[in-house]
């Protein structure tokens, strides 16, 4: 299979394909991709939640790329799209997905907002890891995950982040695949089943050199027990 076909297998696996319904809150997780902010604003303006939280400081991909925290840039996009400023909450300290969840929850608690359901908005290839993190860190919450609605080709070809090309996107997707396998044992996420054809595509992409976003971890497949079992508990992800 060619690189594009292998990448699309990983892309499809990362999607949760949730049906988005009305919720108590929208939580938009920060990143380099401003299309995520546009998607969050769209959901709010369509009446799917009464309040929207933007969560994100500067992470591994935006440190040195942006001068302001992700949450501030995303909120400015939402306000320009028509979201009222008084319906926006900003969490600007988080640097990874686990902190996005925990610090957004703390912020809502300080505002005496205790949601029973949220719509989490993330990049398309981070839907599954976002879902798995929410279900570990905020177990009682009903979470629906969504992302900008586009194909892999459109996502790569129309990326507003000029510093992140198709190869870099594939590197990031492969890195997220590894984290889905590894993080349940570290206690950062719930376990997610990985079908054999997805794992095989992941391994082939690694052989082809897509290793830039991998965590240094020996014997990742063995540590995942052949993709089975949740492992230890506790911690936030990296």
Write the layout of secondary structure elements.
Blueprint (H helix, E strand, L loop, with lengths): L2 H12 L10 E5 L5 H11 L6 E4 L14 H12 L6 E4 L5 H14 L6 E5 L5 H11 L4 E5 L5 H6 L8 H21 L9 H12 L12 H4 L15
Parallel strand pairs: 1-2, 1-4, 2-3, 4-5
Helix pairs in contact: 1-7, 1-8, 2-3, 4-5
Task: Write up what this structure looks like.
The protein starts with a helix and ends in a 15-residue tail after the last helix. Strand 1, helix 2 (35-45) and strand 2 form a beta-alpha-beta unit. Helix content is 43%, strand content 10%. The protein folds into two domains: 3-11 and 152-223, no CATH class; 15-146, Rossmann fold, CATH 3.40.50. It contains nine helices and five strands, in the order H-E-H-E-H-E-H-E-H-E-H-H-H-H. The chain has a five-stranded parallel sheet with strand order 3-2-1-4-5, with helices on both faces. The protein is globular, with a radius of gyration of 17 Å. Mean pLDDT is 88; it is low at 218-238. The chain has 238 residues and is α/β, with parallel strands linked by helices.
Summary keywords:
Rossmann-like_a/b/a_fold, YdcF family protein, 2 domains, globular, Cell_Envelope_Assoc, five-stranded parallel β-sheet, alpha/beta, 238 residues, Rossmann fold, disordered C terminus
> What best-fitting shape do the alpha-carbon axes yield?
globular
Averaging pLDDT over every residue, what do you get? 88
Helix content: 40-55%
Largest sheet: 5 strands, parallel
* CATH topology assignment of the largest domain: Rossmann fold
CATH superfamily of the largest domain: HUPs
Order of helices and strands: HEHEHEHEHEHHHH
Distance between the termini: 31 Å
Number of helices, counting only DSSP H or I runs of 4 residues or more: 9
* Poorly predicted runs of 5 or more residues: 218-238
Structural class: alpha/beta
Strand order of the largest sheet: 3-2-1-4-5
- CATH level 1 name of the largest domain: Alpha Beta
Q: Give the C-alpha Rg.
A: 17 Å
CATH architecture name of the largest domain: 3-Layer(aba) Sandwich
The number of E-state strands comes to: 5
* Number of domain units: 2
The quaternary structure here is single chain
């Amino acid at each position: 299979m060619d690189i594009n076909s292998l990448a699309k297998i990983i892309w499809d696996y990362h999607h949760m394909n949730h049906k988005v319904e009305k919720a108590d809150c929208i939580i938009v997780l920060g990143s380099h991709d401003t299309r995520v902010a546009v998607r969050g604003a769209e959901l709010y303006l369509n009446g799917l939640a009464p309040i929207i939280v933007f969560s994100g400081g500067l992470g591994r991909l935006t440190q040195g790329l942006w001068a302001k925290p992700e949450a501030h840039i995303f909120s400015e996009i939402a306000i320009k799209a028509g979201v009222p400023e008084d319906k926006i909450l900003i969490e600007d300290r988080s640097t990874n997905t686990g902190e996005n969840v925990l610090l957004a929850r703390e912020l809502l608690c300080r505002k005496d907002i205790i949601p029973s359901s949220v719509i989490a908005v993330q990049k398309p290839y981070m839907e599954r890891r976002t879902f798995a993190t929410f279900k570990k860190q905020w177990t009682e919450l009903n979470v629906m995950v969504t992302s900008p609605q586009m194909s892999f080709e459109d996502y790569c070809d129309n990326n507003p982040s000029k510093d992140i090309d198709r190869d870099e996107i594939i590197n990031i997707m492969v890195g997220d695949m590894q984290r889905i396998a590894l993080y349940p044992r570290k206690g950062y996420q719930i376990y997610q089943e990985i079908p054999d054809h997805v794992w095989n595509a992941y391994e082939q992409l690694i052989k082809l050199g897509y290793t830039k976003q991998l965590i240094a971890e020996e014997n990742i497949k063995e540590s995942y027990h052949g993709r089975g079992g949740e492992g230890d508990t506790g911690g936030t992800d990296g």
